[in-house]
Amino acid sequence: MTSPLFDPIELGALKLKNRIVMAPLTRSRAVEGEVPNPLAPEYYGQRASVGLIISEATQISRQGQGYPNTPGIFTEAQVQGWKRVTDAVHARGGLIVAQLWHVGRVSIAAYQPDGRPAVAPSAIAAEGNAMKEDFTMVPFETPRALTLEEIQGVIADYVHAAEMAKKAGFDGVEVHGANGYLIDQFLKDGSNQRDDRYGGSVENRLRFMLEVVSAVVAVWGADRVGIRLSPSNGSNGTRDSDPAAVFVPAAAALKPFGLAYLHLIEGEPGTAMAPWEGAPLLAARMREAFGGPLMLNGGLTRETAEKAMSEGRADLVSVGVPVLANPDLVERWKTNAPLNAPDRATFYGGGAKGYTDYPFLETVGA
Ligand code: PHB
Hints:
two-stranded antiparallel ribbon, 8-stranded parallel beta barrel, binds P-hydroxybenzoic acid, alpha/beta, TIM Barrel
């Protein structure tokens, strides 16, 4: 059966051979100095048959880190580690962008270079628990509000990371504006109660996102920059009282940049990324307001991915766990082959097991 999933698509300057994208997946396997794991080139290289790989979330600074062993993209050693990854993906005919990440209040003092509280738009704690470097959990701490001067410093960190991503040989970058991390914290009124030009009105709450995008576009050109948003999954307790009133205008405000794509998390019902009770479904409206390619994400199967595309909610899709467990997911979806079962115990931390040892089709049962 023909499916639009296997059709090529152009996202700005990125020419994808199909519409199945590897979603960013935290694996917590970085080594000393938050340098990508020596097995990361093999892991990503194995998955180069997808149309595009989005790297695991990579912090733009030590201040932006909130989980154990997540890789960074701000030191020379990290760049050297990523260079091996991008070389491996390119050698196998793939494309890979770096996801630029600052967790904001989803960090704790223990990660902060100065040992002070994590930073956020406002001094309002995230909901739930943070994971310490030893993988134990502690309740989130109350962050401190960024000063206006510090906001400019964070934007400078995005620029530095964007430059380092270029040096590392990536094909572009994705600004992580989703899942209750720093940019999302500015967008949503539950976490942003500032009374300066970065808070209050929707226009003010969009400002930080737009300034980051503008700064990163200045490094890369808009046709190699994407952005990821999640209007309503409530990750880390980050919610808005009226997501449609923020996120449809956000998509419209991004339109003039002419970005490569908008990556939207709007999970299928029953998935971890599903909207909270009563939250609106915005993919179709945001796609129209953005006016460029919309990449949908959130617990999609081949069937629900095709449905979303046929209903005008997506131009392409990203999938996480299925690609994690099936390096050749594209071939498997194409041939309706059975899928490897994901091993949740090896998602975070560890070595080759559950990382580079998922079998390809031809080796199943070999
Ligand atoms: C995570 O590390 O758990 C994580 C990272 C990025 C996300 C979501 C979760 O967008």
